[in-house]
Write a structure and sequence with these properties.
GO terms for molecular function: transferase activity. The chain is an alpha/beta fold. The chain has nine helices and nine strands. It has a seven-stranded mixed beta sheet with strand order 3-2-1-4-5-9-8, sandwiched between helices. The longest helix has 18 residues.
Length: about 300
């Protein structure tokens, strides 16, 4: 389903820039010191670089090369505070936060650090190796988080047409066999660096799956971050003519969600920003500007 083809290797002899040396990410540095128990800056850097190399062996994508898994994509999303605050209005016995494309679970652990109940925070991804790598990253200082391994595009993992069984007030997220029991129960869904991996139709299908999982309670939200485009459509990459991805503009992304939810039932916010931070995405995108699409969909 991925439409990004023939991803290039970084320039020979180059090394990724370690981001936690930057003063702008001092909060991230403090988080990793507290959650790994490693207080020495150089020892922490060595630990995180070793984990990054392991992740890159499994998933050789630019976001891993760029250390995006330590940058706090979820908690630093400009939509996060409003989404988190809206969820507090829920009167449900269990408020569930689901992070799709969770990788080693570092972003979800920051949500837990912000006060979300660990047993109600679920990481989801497709590679089982992420679980052990996440536990290794945080070592004995952080207990495990609920983690489900499975591909939501497969009906044995999630069947949008299957009627969910009546359940009690709470769900044990550590023992899920599939995602069907989550239908209509999830308070917040986060999805970062995920949608742009798929073609137009698969992006629509994924959004429909998320909508089916979302609780009907006002304040329930889906939010995320992905590559954006000034104009919606297939985007060519400079390093290979056959390599491409489907990018949404802020307007087309809003329209996608408007076609999924009934009119007047959700508030949709989309915001396009040009990257200002130091990254090494130039070897992917050349000298072109990198646009990031931040967005949220909240029930009203």
């Amino acid at each position: 389903m991925s439409v990004i083809l023939k991803l290039p290797l970084p320039p020979e002899g180059s090394k990724p820039v370690y981001p936690l040396d930057s003063p702008s990410l001092s909060d991230q540095l403090s988080f990793y010191k507290s959650k790994t128990g490693i207080q020495d800056n150089e020892k922490l850097k060595s630990h995180l670089c070793r984990i990054q190399e392991r992740i890159y062996e499994l998933f050789p994508f630019p976001c891993v090369w760029n250390f995006d898994f330590v940058r706090g994509k979820v908690v630093n999303n400009p939509m996060y505070k409003d989404v988190f605050q809206s969820a507090k209005t829920h009167a449900l016995p269990q408020k569930i936060f689901v992070d799709f494309g969770s990788n080693v679970g570092s972003d979800l652990r920051q949500v837990i650090h912000d006060g979300w109940k660990r047993e109600d925070a679920l990481a989801i991804d497709v590679l089982p190796e992420w679980i052990d790598l996440g536990n290794e990253l945080f070592s004995k200082f952080e207990p495990p988080i609920p983690y489900f391994i499975g591909d939501i595009f497969k009906t044995e993992v999630f069947d949008p047409n299957k009627k969910s069984e009546p359940l009690g007030d709470s769900l044990d997220l550590f023992s899920l066999k599939d995602l069907n029991d989550l239908k209509g129960r999830v308070t917040i869904i986060s999805a970062d660096f995920m949608f742009h991996l798929f073609g137009e139709k698969d992006q629509e299908h994924l959004a429909q799956c998320f909508a089916a999982l979302l609780s009907n309670q006002p304040g329930s939200s889906i939010f995320g971050l992905q590559r954006g485009s000034e104009h919606a459509g297939i985007q060519k990459l400079p390093y290979a003519p056959e390599a491409h991805w489907y990018g949404h503009s802020a307007e087309s992304w809003k329209t996608l969600w408007e076609n999924i939810f009934d009119p007047g039932t959700v508030k949709i916010v989309t915001e396009m920003r040009e990257s200002q931070e130091e990254t090494q995405y130039e070897y992917i995108h050349g000298n072109r500007k990198v646009l990031w699409l931040y967005w949220s969909v909240t029930r009203i």
